[in-house]
Specification:
binds coproporphyrinogen III; two-stranded antiparallel sheet; seven-stranded parallel beta sheet
Length: 359
């Protein structure tokens, strides 16, 4: 199966590119009216995720609108805790909920990794997305597979929901019973590595680990709990899939970029609180950076977007080892026209004003 646009894959090499590749976190989602129309056919979000044809359909929607250089599998990080039978549901406007969260020692000690076969629908979705990317009219771009980090999954599994208090009860457990949290992390680490490997075998070209809640930890706890479990997954995957690039994203952990680069991932995604030029000096020249426009930008206006793209890249070379993206997912209130304006501004600014000047 051929990929016609390989710019994204070339950003994982030392090659100097004519412009930076661009894709957007949550590029398929509720800000798009066509996504809302497709989604309306399913009462429950997880039922939609279980349909490979739905996943492929909504995967293509942003690619048909915008000139993007990569596609991300349509799924969710909570597929793994769901397969652990923790009773996942998504309540409208409230986000994810687990009816059987991990609250006591006996439940935690009994936790086992699910059989990979219970996640076969995800691997089927990967194959279907890959087929859709390479056989239809949409330009064929690389497919990114993904999983949540062991720590971020543990946050949802223990709390039983998203959290306005930044998972305070999970952080309390980390202080009082670090052994229990360590057990959950160990179970999650093994299954996330196997899950990502299976996505690559099903057709994913690049793998991304979302540590969306790494930043709720102190730098010391992050280095002790979240980062090592990510490092173990990267190390396992580098043995099993030496040619598959890996992106890690610990939101809110810009304090630990040098340590993150030591994990051996090919790319590190950063949030908008982290300066790109400083991130470059922290990680060195051999690690690709991805990011980091504020998702609020696609709720502003065209002129602001153009100005911000240029400002964000001041003192930074966007044409080598860099993937343009947001610093977190597009929000449902994003304006689809402004998402297009951001993609165009990135392509224009990247190719005309900066990359040619630096040649
Ligand atoms: O283009 C894409 O990126 C789509 C694929 C995708 C989804 N979720 C679809 C989705 C990806 C990569 C995710 C990852 C994900 N899911 C993360 C990590 C990235 C991040 O944002 O930090 C996290 C923390 C989750 C957990 C999760 N799933 C939340 C917090 C929510 C939102 C709940 C709400 O109602 O606001 C979801 C649901 C979800 N996942 C939606 C989509 C499009 C919306 C649900 C719907 O369509 O009904």
């Amino acid at each position: 199966m051929q990929i016609s646009n390989e710019l994204f894959l070339r950003a994982f090499t030392d090659e100097r590119l004519p412009r930076p590749p661009v894709w957007l976190l949550r590029q398929a989602g509720r800000y798009l009216p066509e996504y809302r129309a497709s989604r309306a056919k399913y009462a429950r979000f997880m039922d939609a995720c279980r349909s490979p044809s739905f996943c492929a359909e909504v995967l293509l929607q942003p690619l048909d609108r915008y000139q993007l250089d990569a596609a991300i599998l349509f799924s969710d990080i909570l597929t793994i805790p769901d397969a652990m039978n923790l009773g996942l549901s998504f309540e409208a406007g409230e986000g994810p909920r687990f009816s059987k969260p991990l609250r006591d020692e006996a439940t935690i000690r009994a936790l086992r990794a699910p059989e990979l076969s219970s996640l076969q629908y995800v691997f089927d979705a990967v194959s279907e997305c890959k087929r859709a990317l390479t056989t239809g009219d949409t330009q064929s771009v690389p497919l990114i597979g993904f999983a949540g980090s062991p720590w971020t999954l543990a946050c949802y599994m223990i709390e039983g929901a998203g959290s306005a208090s930044e998972f305070a009860s999970v952080r309390r457990m980390l202080f009082q019973r670090p052994d229990l949290v360590a057990h959950i992390l160990a179970v999650n680490t093994d299954i996330v590595a196997d899950y990502l490997e299976a996505q690559a075998h099903a057709g994913a070209n690049v793998l991304m680990i979302f540590d969306s809640w790494g930043g709720v930890l102190s730098p010391m706890q992050y280095a002790k709990y979240s980062l090592p479990s990510i490092g173990k997954i990267v190390a396992a995957l580098k043995v099993r899939l030496p040619h598959t690039p890996i992106i890690t994203f610990s939101k809110g952990a810009g304090h630990s970029l040098a340590a993150q680069s030591e994990c051996g991932a090919d790319a590190i995604a950063i949030d908008w609180q982290t300066d790109l030029a400083r991130a470059r000096s922290a990680v060195g020249s051999a690690t690709t950076l991805q990011g980091n426009f504020d998702p609020a930008l696609v709720t502003t206006d065209d002129a602001t977007i153009r100005r911000t793209v240029a400002e964000t890249w001041e003192g930074f070379d966007p044409c080598r080892r860099y993937i343009a993206n947001l610093g977190h997912g597009i929000t449902p209130d994003a304006d689809p026209a402004l998402v297009g304006a951001l993609v165009s501004a990135i392509r224009d600014t990247g190719s005309q004003q900066i990359c040619s000047m630096n040649l």
